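Priority: low. Protein: aminodeoxychorismate synthase. Input follows.
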Amino acid sequence: MNYSLHSSLLDLSNPFLGSLLCTNLKLPFFNRFRRVGYTNNNQNVHESYATRRKLVVSSQLMPGQLEGSLIWRKQLDDPRRKQEYVRTLLIDNYDSYTYNIYQELAVVNGVPPVVVRNDEWTWEDVRHYLYEEKAFDNVVISPGPGSPACPADIGICLQLLLECWDIPILGVCLGHQALGYVHGARVVHAAEAVHGRLSVIEHNGSRLFQNIPCGINSEFKVVRYHSLILEAGSLPKELIPIAWTSYSGTHSYMENLKSGLISHAYESQTDSSLSFSHSLTDTSNGISSWPSNFSELTQRNNVLMGVMHTTRPHYGLQFHPESIATCYGRQIFKNFKDLTEDYWQKFGSTFIHERISQYPACMQVPSASQLVGIPGSGPFGIDDAKPLRLATRPGKLLGSLDQSNSHKMCTIMSSSESSTSVKNLKLKWRKLDRLAAKVGGARNIFCELFGTGTAENTFWLDSSSVEKGRARFSFMGGKGGPLWEQMTFRLSEESNVASRCRGHLSVVDARGSKRSMFLENGFFHFLNQKLASFRYNEEDFEELPFEFYGGYIGFLGYGLKVECGKSYNRHKSRPPDACFFFVDNFLVIDHCYDDVYIMTVNEGSAAITPWLDETAEKLLRLEHSALQKLDDHVSQSTTFAPGKEGFYAEKSKEQYIKDVHKCLEYIKDGESYELCLTTQLRKIVGEIDSLGLYLHLRNKNPASYAAWLNFSNENLCICCSSPERFLRLDRNNVLEAKPIKGTIARGTTQEEDKQLKLQLQYSEKDQAENLMIVDLLRNDLGSVCEPGSVHVPCLMDVESYATVHTMVSTIQGKKQSNVSAVECVRAAFPGGSMTGAPKLRSMELLDSLESCSRGIYSGSIGYFSYNQTFDLNIVIRTVIIHEGEASIGAGGAIVSLSNPEDEYNEMLLKARAPAKAVIEFQ
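Result:
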């Protein structure tokens, strides 16, 4: 075969021909790609985050510089033995699935890997830790957006693959493409973009696939997230194909579930009785051989799914072994571990056993790797990483953070910065058995006790839909006792990277006194300090069945993504970016038993207020007729269209559809797997009865995570009927997320409703949407949870609500003990169901497409209890009333299977319930 020079997908010259063991081959300087949102400094728009990332690959990158001297292995006489653990350097290509790989490797290797983003370390750093410190036994290169031909997408990975020819390396998806690209293969568009869908994989029985069945009818199905591939016909002689797709096409998750082929990602994925020890050419027992020539491959419509180098311990996988729906994913990582052990042992060396004492000591602590890449670790867990910092060369791990990780440095907390005084809190409570039903339920209680006048400065976390155990408790109250205060935060107008975490905070206390401050380190940092300042006795609440005992209730706006290491905000929010009450007097309603709890929090030895007694008396005086029923004048109209009823949309139908097409182009080019495109609908409402509107909305569209918030000082009311939980942390340190992806309208008849529910359940597009977000949330939880603890007890259940059916999954994990509540939120905020995946790149693209700020929409409403439990929703199906205007955000996930017209109709469906509530109420 003639291996001639090929141009890559992006029309860059690819110089990697022949063997790369030579020492005279040089890489050209890669042209920087102009990405979406990028302009020069003379234009009044932003430069994309991707183009500002420092470029590691340059004209100075040269293979072979270390030659044979790189193998600095001491030839000792210790007997060979298997490793207790294998130490992995995990390179993160700014992906949203990296920490799924992290969790798998932590379980398989016996020690968590160290995660480093692809532009965090220089080649000097890599060389130092691999060859001088001997800190790692192998390297895994993560998936990621974009192409290996773009330096901003791939960072240090190309040089790693070139120079580290004596280190075992496994590349996944983008890492797989980088392995091919660096050796001369072409990266091209696949015939079809495949995201969140499954394919049958055949392999040639190589060691990477040991103990994994093979064949067209085998149970080896894998999840694919990619639109680019290595062109099989361009593979150089240095790379051997080891896996490819069957010609049977793609499959949905439900197809595999029906056939019993899906196994849990954190359960054993192999049968110990299986034994496949065939050679590369063995075709017996279902082991397939690669098509005899690439022409045959093309004719059979196979897609290259795995490669290995002929002389180096380098492997690549196009599919995602870490996905929840991939079969035998853990076995692949186990095989890579075994390959690593065998590779080092064959040299007759005990290098892999030469442990510099500080490395195994620090690496067995999950927080150690937080210093070099775990999202959310920078601000609060930095002291826990001190052993690793002291064990390294001065300035090498932290020295580059000022430039490449300024988003982390801007939130680092030190004790000297904190001026928050310690508060010793005491909780008192009283339970009124089965009272709620006797007085007309939660609505009557709220309206009678807190809803008088305009219900100023009141809150109601309202579980108005409690069927099937979706929610159990509601929390309500108003301006309370001496500890009550309101915090309002607005991000700074400055837009440069160094200042994007900063903002203005105003605090109004119970006496009406107001103070303002400028937060250099952002709102999450401040909130974390406040929660850390509380002292309490767990005996005060150990008998209570719920998780909120007093603390902060309010919202986090979508714009706070800039404090979570994400892309900066192109648009400024008109409402505040965060607003919270500190709640000291409140009620809790247990909808399961109709019990009512009266709660009050005081500081230290302060005298107990009479609030408990007074509130109990008010509740006992209530009767069913205490509140006159609201006259819900209901329109008979069943349709809704923006513009016809006073609502106007930020984007026309034509523009929205045009933006869906743009999203599909980004997905086709590998920039994203899924993009949650949204828009805003607005209507001038003037002096509207906001509480009456909320009561009408909850009556028409009850929801498990509904909420009413009235920040009267900000002229802001929030009427929320969200069915989606973002994230919860209970007092057992269990984190739970419940993302929704996939929505369809209810039917007008029972039979039609049943058919629509089945249509949603078996929709390949909706299953793909949901699966991608489940894997994303597993990643977010995996960065702060104990290794091996993240699991999915419920995958793609269809739940029914008043107006829609939705597809819901549940992800849980055990929080690491050294991670704070706020740190957990920062690791996952904003909710992946409202961004897409990979999250960072997707938000960058969405910022360039959306014409206004999302504001509170797509953020979260809920509580942070003073004992650091929390429960937050996703702000959807919500009417925001701010300064006389009602706004509703709506949108949907765009995937490769999306139809633009259908996406526009889905956006209208999601806006319909809150918009109709406003129209009917007026």
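The first helix runs from residue 49 to 52. The mean pLDDT is 80.
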